[in-house]
Amino acid sequence: QILYLKPPWTLANLLKCYKKHWMAVFGYVVPRSLLSTIECLYKHLCTGKTVDSSTVGILLQESKKLLHAFSSRSDYNGVLPQAYAEVSKLYQTLTEVRGALVRSDSEQDLSEDIMVLSENAVCEKMEAMTPNLQNCEEKKLHPSFHVAQENRHQEIWSVLEGVWNTINLYSIEIFQKLDPNAVTLTAKSSFEEAFLGLQKLLAAVNDIREGISR
């Protein structure tokens, strides 16, 4: 009845409504600290600024955080889990592209190192060059190797976080459907989908556990 901006909303209008009614409404539904997430999304998505890939990753993570927070209230007729899955898919795609770029850069650096070392080997004896070559390789490969390792850690963390958040969303869905007062004929397919999803997640978690053990 009392709203800052009337629908239909654009994304910018929606985020403005969040900010305007945060203390009176939304701050009672989700943690109030998430106002920083709203401000971050508005700053980068609604002010016409261009964003790089690292900023896109941050925005996707902030979006996942916001969606996950609201999942504690409701699944919003299945819209929220679907939105969360799409954002997670986008984040996974971005992570894979980043990883491919880092690997490509690492391979290019390695090829350049090999060419330089081959040219130097013509000028000096192999015995004298061996220690210098090792030092040269370590110095040149270290930055790329460090970036690749750091990216790999972020990728692993993203997978584990995605599994954990998805389990939470499906668990909320199942407990809501198990409530006798909430069960309806139209909710049957959603319940079955949630159950099958948990079976797939169980297999995925087992694969991750075996990988960690190895």
From TrEMBL:
GO CC term (a single one): nucleus
Highest taxon of the lineage: Eukaryota
PANTHER family named among the record's database cross-references: TRANSCRIPTIONAL PROTEIN SWT1
InterPro entries, sorted: SWT1_Regulator
Annotated protein name in UniProt: SWT1 protein
Chain coiled-coil ranges: none
